[in-house]
């Protein structure tokens, strides 16, 4: 009897949530109708600036309704999320795998991106060991590293591209884009199995990392066995003979080989203020 009551309660709770989502959608549509009528009036009055501002606000409101409606739902990737609002969503890579949360960037570069590394203020220490880089650390709404195992699961099943966004401490922005990206298994030391062709403005600093195994301060998998680069440069990465892209290095506004750097950004070891790495499923 108690089980039946629980089932009835769960059904009623689900129905209430659905009704609430439906009411929110109806309210948004009604607001759209009112806004369209107002915009027609604005056009007749020649006030184009107010029209654009109103449409932007409306688009944002509808996006928020969709985000609330789909929050808690499970998707195969950020590309399949039917909302243009960036935030955390649940994805399930395979039908028989456990879902996990990711941060989806739904606006920049057309949206549909899974962010796997994000640094912007130095509040999170990235000088960590193998287990943490494997499992992930940080807060998905702040600075974080998603985790090598999740990255392997995501990229091994379907083809993905890579986007790297960078800023220096003067606010200069550059990016690097690769049309293919795949991470190997843990037994292969999460090697950079596939790295496609480069386009962008930041320079191809990851060119020499292709095929390299991932190294951390407590596990040296470098091609150069005489130098433990992750320890020497204080940055876990796909080190070959060290790297020109030390984006997990120390957060510092200084020209130093241990800094969070992308050597081709300014052709030196100057530390950067912002790094965001993300992947998107290809057609």
TrEMBL record:
In terms of CDD domains, this protein maps to:
FReD
Do you know which NCBIfam families this protein is assigned to? Answer: GGGWT_bact (NF040941)
Q: Which domain of life is it from?
A: Eukaryota
Give the protein name, as stated in the record: Putative ficolin
GO cellular component entries: extracellular space
Q: SMART domains this protein is in?
A: FBG (SM00186)
* Fibrinogen C-terminal domain mapped to chain residues: 69-283
Alphabetized InterPro entries for the sequence: Fibrinogen-like_C (IPR036056), Fibrinogen_a/b/g_C_1 (IPR014716), Fibrinogen_a/b/g_C_dom (IPR002181), Fibrinogen_C-term_domain (IPR050373)
UniProt-listed SUPFAM superfamilies: Fibrinogen C-terminal domain-like
Q: Which Pfam families does this UniProt record tie to the protein?
A: Fibrinogen_C
């Amino acid at each position: 009897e108690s089980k039946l009551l629980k089932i009835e309660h769960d059904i009623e709770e689900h129905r209430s949530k659905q009704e609430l989502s439906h009411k929110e959608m109806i309210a948004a549509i009604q607001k759209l109708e009112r806004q369209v009528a107002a915009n027609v009036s604005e056009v007749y009055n020649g006030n184009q600036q107010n029209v654009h501002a109103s449409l932007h606000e409306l688009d944002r409101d509808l996006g928020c309704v969709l985000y609330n409606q789909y929050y808690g739902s499970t998707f195969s990737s950020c590309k399949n999320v039917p909302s243009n609002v960036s935030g955390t969503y649940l994805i399930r890579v395979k039908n028989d795998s456990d879902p996990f949360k990711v941060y989806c960037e739904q606006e920049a570069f057309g949206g549909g991106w899974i962010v796997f590394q994000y640094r912007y203020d130095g509040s999170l220490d990235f000088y960590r060991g193998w287990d943490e880089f494997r499992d992930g650390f940080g807060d998905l709404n702040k600075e974080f590293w998603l985790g090598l195992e999740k990255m392997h699961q995501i990229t091994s099943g379907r083809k993905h591209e890579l986007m790297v966004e960078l800023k220096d401490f003067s606010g200069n922005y550059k990016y690097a884009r690769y049309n293919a990206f795949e991470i190997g298994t843990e037994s292969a030391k999460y090697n950079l199995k596939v790295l496609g062709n480069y386009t962008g403005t930041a320079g191809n600093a990851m060119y020499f990392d292709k095929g390299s195994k991932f190294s951390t301060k407590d596990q040296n998998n470098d091609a150069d066995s005489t130098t433990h680069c992750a320890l020497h440069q204080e940055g876990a990465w796909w080190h070959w003979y060290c790297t020109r892209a030390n984006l997990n290095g120390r957060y510092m506004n200084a020209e130093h080989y241990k800094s969070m750097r992308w050597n081709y950004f300014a052709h030196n070891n100057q530390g950067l203020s912002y790094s965001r790495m993300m992947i998107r499923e290809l057609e």
